[in-house]
Amino acid sequence: MRKHALLFPLISLLTLALAGAAQNAPARTTKIKVTAEQANIREKPDIGSSIVQQIPEGSVLEADRKEGEWYFVRYTLEDGGVIGGWIHESLVEVVEEGGPVREVVKTPTKEAPPREHAPRPIRIGKITRPEFSTGSIPLEFSVSAGLGSVAPRDLNDGTRGYADWFGASIGIPAPGPADILRLAFLAGFELSYRISPRLALGLGADFLHGANGGKIVFTDPPLTETLSTGPSVRGVPFKIMARFYPGAGFYIHGGLGIYSVKAGYLFRHEGADSWEQWKGTATGSGFGGEAAFGGEWGIAPRTVFFAEAGFRMASFHGLTGRNVYTNSAGETQTEPGTLYYFSKTADDENVYPLIFVRGSVPSEAGVVDSRRADVNLSGTAVRVGVRYSF
Hints:
mainly beta, eight-stranded antiparallel beta barrel, seven-stranded mixed sheet
């Protein structure tokens, strides 16, 4: 009986000691590794919050709680200071499971009054030098340049058709096809707003220009005629766009724009002592779309280099402008009208496609299949550029 009386106090003391040890034991944390080329630790769990530190790929951090899609982590600086802040789950992966990461549920709180100075990073432990922090609006500005394929079929067919028609008219077959449009230079800029780590929306504009001039020499002694041709196109789309990042450093890009379009042609033939020329331009507008995929590579704390490849769909008709005829005698005739595509019979009885600005639908002798010309700027494109984050 006395033995049992002594045993109960000993068990009670042991239980209290174990409980105290459990209470004082350090909490287990989850280790996460940065998978993006560069990840931002932010002051608050919000994409618009200030950046307190930028972390390189491969860094291992300790997370002791989670709020929605954000981990609260600690990061040790080179000088021994420790920074605490929030990092988005899309930028990291779990490498060592600790205890369950504590989920934090937000409760309504009274909004804090605005601060007079820029927010300072959260410090845990040693106080070190101030860290750089951005503003609260996640804007990005991009500039780019590249090449695109173009295939304005009516303009190309009309250019080659005129060379063949002219050769048939003077009785000398064309020694080769006229040069046509295949490539265009493009440049552009975009201003975008980063809604989340995976999505950005923005506005932008491009400049697309292609031109190709060439000469064909028709020779049949003693006659020599030189024909110069010069098809050209220009497109300036003002567009709305979206970028979606399914993974770090990789994105899908789409856009819809209103295009301002201009098409031109030149037909000039020169003989031994005279020349004559037809030069026309026509403009119009319409809608077009584009899609691309690309990749990003960090080159500075807020700057990335990007490269992308994609395609655009944009076709226009009903362009209006003028045709100007000049010759070596000083004559000039200007005809305003619409850009037409039609076929005309030459002296060899063959029918050749032509493209001209005319004041009315072409209907003279030998002309068939007249219609408004289509200017198709659809094609593929590749571009490279630089994107800067404010």
